[in-house]
Amino acid sequence: MTWSELLVYLAISNAVYYCIVISIFFRRELRAMVLRRGETRARVSNEQVAKGGAVEEAAHTDASLYHQVHELLEECKLVFRAAADESLDKSQLLEALQYRLRKYPSVRGTSFQISVTNHIEQEVEHRCQIRLTEQELEELWQ
C-alpha cells in the first residue's frame, strides 16, 4: 500500500464517517433543507416566473405549510407512542389527536389534510391496532 492509496482510503473513510454522523444528529434539519429545495424547484414553472413576486410568496407559504405539517406529524408520532405504551382507549386517542390537529388550523382544507389523515389512519392501525372509521377521521378535523 502506497502513501497515496492510504490518503485516498482515509479521505473516503472520513467522508463516510461524517455523512453517517451528520445524518444521525441532524436528520430533521437535513430533511427540512431537502424539502425546501425540492419544493422551490418543483413549484417554479414558466407560468409562475411570469407572475414575478407571486412566486416568492407562494414558495414562502408552501415552505411554511410544509414546516407546519412536519411539526404536526412529529406531535402525532408522540401521541402514537404514548397510546401504544400506555394502552389508551379509542376515545382518549381520538381526543389527543384532535387536540394536536386543532393547533394547526392552516393545514385544514389543504391537500395536506388528506395526507395527514391517511397517515393517522395507518399509524393508529399499525401501532395501536385500532381501526378508525371515515366518520371518526373526519371528526378529528372539526
What composes the largest sheet? none
Assess the beta-strand content as a share of residues: under 5%
Distance, first to last CA: 68 Å
Helix content: over 70%
Q: Which residues sit in consecutive blocks of at least 5 with pLDDT less than 50?
A: none
Rounded mean pLDDT score: 80
Supply the helix-strand structural class: mainly alpha
Total number of helical segments? 7
Oligomer: single chain
What is the chain-wise order of helices and strands? HHHHHHH
Radius of gyration: 21 Å
Query: Looking at the structure, what is the overall shape?
Result: elongated
How many individual β-strands? 0
What does this structure look like?
- There is one protein chain.
- The chain is mainly alpha-helical and 142 residues long.
- The protein has a domain at 64-142.
- Helix content is 83%, strand content 0%.
- The chain has 7 helices and no strands.
- It is elongated, with a radius of gyration of 21 Å.
- The mean pLDDT is 80.
Keywords:
142 residues; mainly alpha; 0% strand; elongated
Q: What are the SSEs and their pairings?
A:
Blueprint: H1 3-25, H2 27-43, H3 46-51, H4 53-86, H5 90-102, H6 111-128, H7 134-140
Helix pairs in contact: 2-4, 4-5, 4-6
Task: Summarize the entry for a quick read.
The protein has 142 residues and is mainly α. Helix content is 83%, strand content 0%.
